[in-house]
Specification:
single chain; alpha+beta; Alpha-Beta Plaits; four-stranded antiparallel sheet
Length: about 100
Amino acid sequence: MDQNNVFVHAKWQVKEGKLDAVLYLMKEATEKSTQEEGNLFYKLHQSREDQNMIILYEGYTDENAVEAHRNSEHFKNIVLEKVVPLLENREVILMNLLF
């Protein structure tokens, strides 16, 4: 990992009864995202206290790779168009490695 890497922490609160649909959609999104040229990793986590809370932890080589991801067809078609409407809340934080 180097100082140019960009990491994304996305916290999603899934609407009640929509978790299975979100997880199904995210399998494809994960598969396609990990194949992107600048992707270092793309990991989904689930809260142990609230099963409807999903945390995505993503790593990219640089800001250009993040932009390429956000402009990809699979991000727009799967995440923005299909997953986001199934969420109560969505918080996204972009981070840089300090040490």
